[in-house]
């Protein structure tokens, strides 16, 4: 054993220890006494390390990755896909090729004439849902900007949501481009990891962020937007579609600050002679009493949500809210809400005609 005597430095020469020094000398500090001028530290005699032979590092095969070893594309690494900080051989080669390689790549973006993710340059994230991410994207050939909704296949399969994604697509296809107040589906495609919905880009964000930023909207502004929502709902209902999750977060604003209804993931396509749906979906502050009591929704459920939205635009707060989801639902069933002072009388009359409970408890 070797005994090492560590002398304390004179006060005038001592310096504040760095964090690294404190970490390295923690055992010395804890065993030292403030009253002793010296402290002892017992060190074991170091043992010689055995010699080892190391083989030369393996080189990565320049062969392109197979399907079993393929990596998710770059648009997934920041969100839905798994992260991988190691570049592939193909990506390193692309960097070296420079502009010539970029031109060659652009000629091969579409596979067999079909649209693919390689046809777009993905930008900032615009929004995120439970199983999807919406990103700004530019179509490389035309320069046209879109909002592309990327749905994670793994999540959809894991939580049995494939039917939900299919229903959203079918709903948007039925609505088509027949109304400017509804987000249009331009195309869809898929790859190994994701489904893609190419949608209209609404550059001015969602209504909820505007209400939050301004606190509330004027009566005139609310009238302007409410009329657009009613017009879009009338078209939607004429096509046999119920939105079932109408709320300010799902009201987008286009370049001219006009409404575009989006997010039809919970939308319902009504068949001939069918007026109601039996699935429990929606957001707690906007669900209607018939959903809570009878577990059904209809076109009137969207009108109930419209009444809640008009109230929120003017009052700057939810119509119904409680300390828990259950208490919020109790207030909805009891129509337990009140108007703040100064609420416009005509708007108040409209809200009272929309937020109506016709179920006998």
TrEMBL record:
- Please note every region of biased composition (Low complexity): 27-40
Q: What's the Enzyme Commission number for this chain?
A: 2.7.11.1
A single GO molecular function, which one?
A: ATP binding
Q: Which reaction does it catalyse?
A: L-seryl-[protein] + ATP = O-phospho-L-seryl-[protein] + ADP + H(+); L-threonyl-[protein] + ATP = O-phospho-L-threonyl-[protein] + ADP + H(+)
Q: Which UniProt keywords apply?
A: ATP-binding, Kinase, Nucleotide-binding, Serine/threonine-protein kinase, Transferase
Question: A Pfam family name for this chain?
Answer: Pkinase
Tell me where in this chain the Protein kinase domain is found.
120-361
Q: Name one GO biological process term.
A: intracellular signal transduction
**UniProt keyword annotation of Acyltransferase present:** no
Tell me yes or no: is Transit peptide among this UniProt entry's keywords.
no
- The record lists ATP as bound by 149
Region (Disordered) location: 27-116
Q: Where is the composition biased (Polar residues)?
A: 53-72, 103-115
* Family matches, as SMART domains: S_TKc
Entry similarity comment: Belongs to the protein kinase superfamily. AGC Ser/Thr protein kinase family. PDPK1 subfamily.
- PANTHER family tied to this protein: 3-PHOSPHOINOSITIDE-DEPENDENT PROTEIN KINASE 1-RELATED (PTHR24356:SF163), SERINE/THREONINE-PROTEIN KINASE (PTHR24356)
Q: What is this protein called?
A: non-specific serine/threonine protein kinase
Biological source species: Piloderma croceum (strain F 1598)
